[in-house]
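User: Run a structure prediction on this.
Assistant: Running it now.
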Amino acid sequence: TAMACVLRRSQHDVLLWAREPEVVAAINGQGVNPIFLSGTPLVAGIRATSDLRQAVQDCDFILMAVPAQHVRTIAGSMRQWLRRLTPVVSCSKGVERGSCALMPEVLADMLPEAVVAVLSGPSFAREIAADLPCGVVLACKDWAVGESLARQISNRHFCVHLSDDVTGAALAGAMKNVISIASGIAAGRKLGDNARATLVTLGLAETSRLGLVKGAELQTFLGLAGAGDMMLTAHSLQSRNTSLGVALGEGRQLADVLAERKEVTEGAFSVEAVAALARQLHVDMPITQALDALLNRGVGLDAATAQLFKHLPALCRVGDNADSAGKPV
């Protein structure tokens, strides 16, 4: 919904697909999304539909912002109506459970005739819906298509930087949610800002390690899609992932917190897939592994926290967080 506001400000005819009929009715009738962006008036002229065929068949490009674990299903449903070579931009920040696939990998699998791109970076929905300044990364292997998309999406307050590192942008977006849960847990347990900064920095390092093995570029993790998004998300209670971590750190149960939420907390569902991917690729990711133990393997909060901080001395050695040239990452 927030990106619909961005695109409308960029002078596009915007049609938003929503599964919920009450959302469609509210957008078309009152210009608001009372469930997923309550209290924020939308830019005039945005239309909504629950008809997926109507939403995709005549589009110049599509932004996919459905929850990560549903991208495969929705993309599969879109396929029959999508015109060949239509750009499809992934805005979902997660890793698919079971396959351990990044979102552009899912889209490429389900929409083989589409041109797949990724939009990622520090971009809280309420702020971009309110037209506050924001910088993001648009990653596309087809540079000409990427340039065209960047021009079409950009506007006065929404700055789009072009990249061809689709894997890095997608992984960075998913991992900032995972690491933000860890940051929130440290806050909930009142471990201090030093501990949170340490976790986030080392979380960026383990993100980079996984990314390099997946063929991503180190520079991506040092820019808006990597460090920028992680700094924003891991240090703000506006983040659903950080606030989830705070609740867990205070001793609440995962199922209880998620049951109270209408919006999806992507990191809670991506942790398992990222941990599995790390094991497959033999990448050491102790923060992710400790979170997986807590969220998915029945390990208690005290034990998971102890497991995490047991690794910190080793993680802080330069050699364990270095790139191939021996430089710290």
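Strands lie at 15-17, 47-49, 62-64, 87-90, 115-120, 134-140, 158-163.
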